[in-house]
Amino acid sequence: MKASIYYEKGDIRYEEISVPEIGDGEILMEMEACGLCGTDIHKAQDGTVKGPVVLGHEAVGKIVKKGKNTDRFNIGDRIITAIHVPCFTCHYCNKGQYTLCGQFKNTNIEPGGFAEYIRIPEEHVKHLVHIVPDGVSVEEATLAEPVACCIHGLKAADIQTGDSVMVMGAGQIGSIHGQLAKLKGADKVIITDISEFKLRKAKELGVEYTVNVLNENLGERVNEITRGKGLDIIIIAAGNFSLLAEAVSLLGRGGKIIVFSPFDKDNMVEIDAGRFFRDEISIIGTYSVTPYDFPEAMDIIEKKKINIKDMITHTFPLEKLKEAIELAADPGNESLKIIITA
């Protein structure tokens, strides 16, 4: 079979590799589409993983082979899956903190989403594989995983009816967060970025307020929109650690900051620590997705509760993964969600 394999920064090769063998409880999926995630772009552009490795985890396809004890699925079923599975029995799992489980990052699909065929291990088959509903395209279905990730993050935010929410970053994840915040009952939703294209897309997707921080004063706009109250929830959906200090300054009393995007290990930022006591603010980090977030994500996509289809700006064939990553990584290009197809 063919796969696009990352070797090192700037070096992605479309090569022949062996089709994975499956065992009992496992499924072999023929990949039909796989979303290009921001983490894939970060790994490839910044060389944060050691190659050779097949990236990609937002995979959708059809079952072409299955092992014993997979009776709830049939050959030909169109399915989605994700990449990591918790153990459900450890200290963290017992507290509902599934993404902190020691097993979580040690579980993977094989070889990765950017390959023609993918082995789905038994743990994934049990907990992470879902049938794609009729009427949902394979391209739309690839967004189930990022939507589920955002649902996981918004659980920590606990948006209440009437809240004012700001999303910092209007990329693919920020655009999902902005739409979900409105769906969860937020009264006012603001999204910020430096890209006029992404801000225009956010407006088209239904986000009420957009702010280009290159030419608008964000503090003044927040005061205007919230009538001086400040923001109830701020979601950082861009990997710029300096946004944290700005978020603390813009948060209203009792507000929450959700750090959704990763920052580098040694990033240091100075914040007004007195606000924790004085104003009872919270800063919460969220990572990845749990198996329990997928049913809601699929329901949202199937019933078109948010606009997924118009987020997709480009599709590339599997052999053009390198070009797709280069397009997505260049902030001057007008791209939002890119899908890789087999």
Automatic annotation (TrEMBL):
Record keywords: Metal-binding, Oxidoreductase, Zinc
Keyword Signal: no
InterPro entries: ADH-like_C, ADH-like_N, ER, GroES-like_sf, NAD(P)-bd_dom_sf, Zn_alcohol_dh
Xref: PANTHER family: L-THREONINE 3-DEHYDROGENASE (PTHR43401:SF2)
Organism: Sebaldella termitidis (strain ATCC 33386 / NCTC 11300)
Protein name as catalogued: Alcohol dehydrogenase GroES domain protein
Pfam families: ADH_N, ADH_zinc_N
The keyword Oxidoreductase appears for this protein: yes
Single GO MF descriptor: metal ion binding
Domain Enoyl reductase (ER): start-end pairs: 10-340
CDD domains registered for this protein in UniProt: iditol_2_DH_like
Alphabetized SUPFAM superfamilies for the sequence: GroES-like, NAD(P)-binding Rossmann-fold domains
TM region(s), chain numbering: none
